[in-house]
Specification:
With 313 residues, the chain is an alpha+beta fold. The protein has two domains: 213 residues, 3-Layer(aba) Sandwich (Replication Protein E1, Chain: A), CATH 3.40.1310; 45 residues, no CATH class. The protein is built from eight helices and twelve strands. The strands form four sheets. The chain has a five-stranded antiparallel sheet with strand order 6-1-3-2-10, with helices on both faces. Strands 7-8-9 form a three-stranded antiparallel sheet. The radius of gyration is 23 Å and the shape is globular. GO terms for molecular function: DNA binding; transposase activity.
Amino acid sequence: MAARAEDLLPVEYFHVVFTLPAEIAKIAYWNKKAVYDLLFRASAETVTTIAADPKRLGACIGMTSVLHTWGSALTHHPHVHMIVPGGGLSPDGQRWIACRPGFFLPVRVLSRLFRRLFIEGLLALHRAGNLAFFGELAGLAEADAFAAWLAPLRKSEWVVYAKPPFGGPEAVLAYLSRYTHRVAISNSRLINADAETVTFRWKDYRIKNGDRQKVMRLATDEFIRRFLIHVLPDGFHRIRHYGLLAGAGRKAIVTKIRTLLGAESQDEAPSAEIIPLTLRQPCPDCGGPMRIVEIFRRGQQPRSRAPPRHQAA
């Protein structure tokens, strides 16, 4: 976390999620390293390509990607969470180009390119003999059968989801500290466990309106099976950095960007009004905008709240 804090920029950050279709997840089940690597590469190339397009942002960007392979019920659900600064360097590297406030890149455009890049990569893995097929998928080892099986996926919608922007760099760090090193289920969700069954809480995201919190009871061996699905191949890195945030030159680039951002802020008129960051939801009491006073991590004492004074005996 200390290393990531050094890379944070004083800009708006965005959260983008790339999810594999259920059909592709079946192949990933038996080919974790190859397919998860491709998921990382295709999603990163998608964002960097669209961001570099002069019609979109026209900038060289950087990002941190985190792989999750589970759904709330411990099912196999491979997806990548991507944390992206809201802007990038101009092609000549001399200017910081910021995206529009609250908007990064169009998700439909991202989805279409991601779909094409991933399918092309999957076909390349198949031609190279780097995919294994078992059970009901054994027939996909044949090139013609595999191509025919992929055909409907070229026309279906692939899920790329852009979440609301983070509240600021501190919120990005808090997110990374919570989610980058977590396993498929946390201890807080476990209710009971014995030799026969394991009981835990999960969220049913299919419920749009209403209580998503559910309780699931699984036979102990089934719980272990689901948990072990999410054990990654030995040496596999589930946190990766791309673009401006990749490689040994990252620190120099981050320092340069901070210098450019500092120069921009100095060029602004001293009388320019500073608009405080606000939440998207209005105040439930008066209906007015709710302003973010401070962002702090769990267990941390807020600076805006003075500690209670001890009363005299």
